[in-house]
Amino acid sequence: MHSIWSRANTIFAFTLSVLSAVTFCCFLSTIWLPNTAPVTISASNPRLKSMVDYASDGSKSDVVMLSLNIQADVSSVFNWNVKQLFIYLVAEYSTMKNHLNQVVLWDKIILRNEKTVIIEESIPPKYYYIDDGNNLLSHKNVTLVLKWNVIPNAGYLAMAQGEGQFVVQMPDNYISGRF
Amino acid sequence: MGLFDYAIFDEIRRMNARQVIYQFLNFAMIVSSALMIWKGLMVVTGSESPIVVVLSGSMEPAFHRGDLLMLTMDRDDPIRAGDITVFKIEGRDIPIVHRVIKVHEKSGKDDSKFLTKGDHNQVDDRGLYAPGQYWLTPKDVVGRGKGFVPYVGMVTILMNDYPKLKYTVLGLLGLFVLVHRD
């Protein structure tokens, strides 16, 4: 242990070991914390059209436009091991063609130290709400839920769902003209 | 002074044939332990590549280039919106790490189609899929991201970008293990 090389080697190996141990402890320290929070979701004025989906295979599909309200306070989900939250609003429903459909209508990234209160009022969906086919006419059970992905500094990528949901009832007619 | 007169080679000069063989055995043990850990991880996670390095910035700010992602592959767990999937497009080797934004499942978990999008991208991944392909299916998925370690994968990226660096580092490491006594 007298040459500079063996000293440098020991320091380097020790640094690596300590770093990996600390990373592992960081991961363990927050693994069992709950990641949920209450949310308030509502939607109004759903309108339906049947349009050709040019971005996909060119077949006609139902397109929905509606007005969304999302309120949530996710500050309780943030702990020292959370780098960011990826929050997304999903429309979940079941149709004759597909027994499960999930379409993400809106998403938001909140980094640590940013504002953790979400208040969105009367916003349109961020992404087009396009169904796989024409199955949404008179659909009475489209559930909107808010979910988030907890991205840690190091460790487990957890998924959680906000407490609270909203059921949208689709109209019985298509609208003509523009949205 | 010749090359072998340096102090680091002191130990190898003091070794007899048996100890030299022991050094090689030591080296082989290290290599096979690494291989066992890798294969063991493959079995535990069920994925062909249990650890991937993030190569692009399309999932920023969650994953930056050089971060390490641990994958699991559970075929019984259906793909749902929000999952971070690692998938390969048919005909291309490079795995892509993006998030699922749309799922349409006909009857069972194997009969589903889904659409992905990188968090940092403005548009979904249809431009990345094969011509005529508008959806992904569960068989395109290599694994799902479950664990994350930052920065560690930078070593792999550097070694791939500068192959001479890879050979030098591996060569020096091998030499050091062979020469050093303990």
TrEMBL record, chain A:
Keyword annotations from UniProtKB, A to Z: Endoplasmic reticulum, Membrane, Signal-anchor, Transmembrane, Transmembrane helix
**Entry membrane topology:** Single-pass type II membrane protein
Cellular compartment(s): Endoplasmic reticulum membrane
Q: Show the InterPro entries listed in the entry.
A: SPC3
* Keyword Membrane in record: yes
Cellular component annotations (GO), alphabetically ordered? signal peptidase complex
GO BP terms: protein targeting to ER; signal peptide processing
Annotated TM spans: 12-33
Family label? Belongs to the SPCS3 family.
Its annotated function is as follows: Essential component of the signal peptidase complex (SPC) which catalyzes the cleavage of N-terminal signal sequences from nascent proteins as they are translocated into the lumen of the endoplasmic reticulum. Essential for the SPC catalytic activity, possibly by stabilizing and positioning the active center of the complex close to the lumenal surface.
Recorded protein name is: Signal peptidase complex subunit 3
Upper taxonomic lineage: Eukaryota, Metazoa, Ecdysozoa, Nematoda, Chromadorea
TrEMBL record, chain B:
Question: Alphabetically, which GO biological process terms does the record hold?
Answer: signal peptide processing
Q: Which residues cross the membrane?
A: 20-38
* Residues annotated as domain Peptidase S24/S26A/S26B/S26C: 38-104
CDD domains for the chain: S26_SPase_I (cd06530)
Tell me if Transmembrane helix is a UniProt keyword of this record.
yes
Its keywords, alphabetically, are: Endoplasmic reticulum, Hydrolase, Membrane, Protease, Signal-anchor, Transmembrane, Transmembrane helix
Its membrane topology, per UniProt?
Single-pass type II membrane protein
Q: Where does the record say this protein resides?
A: Endoplasmic reticulum membrane
**Is Membrane among the key words of this record?**
yes
Q: Which Pfam families match?
A: Peptidase_S24
User: What GO molecular function terms would the record report?
Assistant: serine-type endopeptidase activity; signal peptidase activity
Query: Which reaction equation describes what this protein catalyses?
Result: Cleavage of hydrophobic, N-terminal signal or leader sequences from secreted and periplasmic proteins
Read off the SUPFAM superfamilies from this record: LexA/Signal peptidase
In which domain of life is the source organism classified?
A: Eukaryota
- EC numbers, comma separated: 3.4.21.89
The family annotation for this protein states:
Belongs to the peptidase S26B family.
Functional note: Catalytic component of the signal peptidase complex (SPC) which catalyzes the cleavage of N-terminal signal sequences from nascent proteins as they are translocated into the lumen of the endoplasmic reticulum. Specifically cleaves N-terminal signal peptides that contain a hydrophobic alpha-helix (h-region) shorter than 18-20 amino acids.
Listed under subunit, the entry gives: Component of the signal peptidase complex.
Xref: NCBIfam families? sigpep_I_arch
UniProt-recorded name of the protein:
Signal peptidase complex catalytic subunit SEC11
